[in-house]
Q: What sequence folds into this?
């Protein structure tokens, strides 16, 4: 009986040592087979100047839409847009694509690198690689084009060049505006117009 009590006491004493050691061994094994993790490294975040972003109000993939007095639809999209620091009514936008849908069914597409839009004046100035294309076959390029949102009106203060149904043409100035006749518009080229006429070849 004394031997059994002695054995039991020793067994309990050894288990008090062995079991904690075994538990430590299992825990260390879990850490070894887990993914390497360095607690000294910070959590990866996007490289963004948060303070600057908080100060700069703006939007990405912005869109501005409206209707002219004549009922023509105007849609302007920009990859990025932000208000001016001094005048919040002035919007600076980048990578522009604009479309004007005339009531007559004709469509005018305009693209540019950037634009400054003034909300209270219903106007916009598009600059940098400006391209104007019409569904009637004209494609003109310029450095700048000034447009309005309340009326169908756009003009280039500088030279333009491109082509249209008559042929290749260039001019010192181009104006797009609504005509007096309803549901119509026309392009006007002035200041030294040069046209290389391309006769239409009959398919017969």
A:
């Amino acid at each position: 009986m004394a031997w059994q009590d002695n054995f039991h006491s020793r067994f309990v004493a050894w288990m008090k040592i062995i079991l904690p050691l075994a538990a430590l061994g299992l825990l260390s094994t879990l850490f070894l087979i887990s993914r390497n993790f360095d607690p000294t490294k910070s959590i990866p975040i996007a490289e963004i100047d948060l303070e600057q972003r908080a100060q700069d109000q703006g939007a990405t993939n912005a869109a501005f839409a409206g209707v002219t007095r004549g009922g023509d639809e105007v849609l302007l999209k920009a990859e990025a847009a932000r208000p001016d620091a001094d005048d919040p009514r002035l919007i600076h936008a980048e990578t522009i694509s604009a479309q004007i849908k005339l009531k007559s069914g004709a469509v005018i597409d305009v693209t540019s690198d950037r634009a400054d839009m003034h909300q209270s004046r219903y106007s916009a100035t598009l600059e940098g690689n400006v391209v104007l294309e019409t569904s009637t076959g004209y494609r003109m390029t310029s450095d700048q084009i000034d447009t309005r949102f309340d009326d169908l009106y756009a003009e280039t203060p500088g030279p333009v060049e491109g082509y249209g149904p008559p042929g290749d043409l260039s001019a010192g100035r181009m104006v797009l505006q609504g005509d007096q006749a309803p549901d119509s518009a026309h392009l006007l080229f002035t200041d030294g117009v040069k046209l290389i006429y391309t006769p239409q070849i009959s398919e017969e």
Summary: The longest strand covers residues 90-101. Residues 31-35 have pLDDT under 50 and may be disordered. Residues 58-197 form a domain with the lipopolysaccharide transport protein A fold fold (CATH 2.60.450.10).
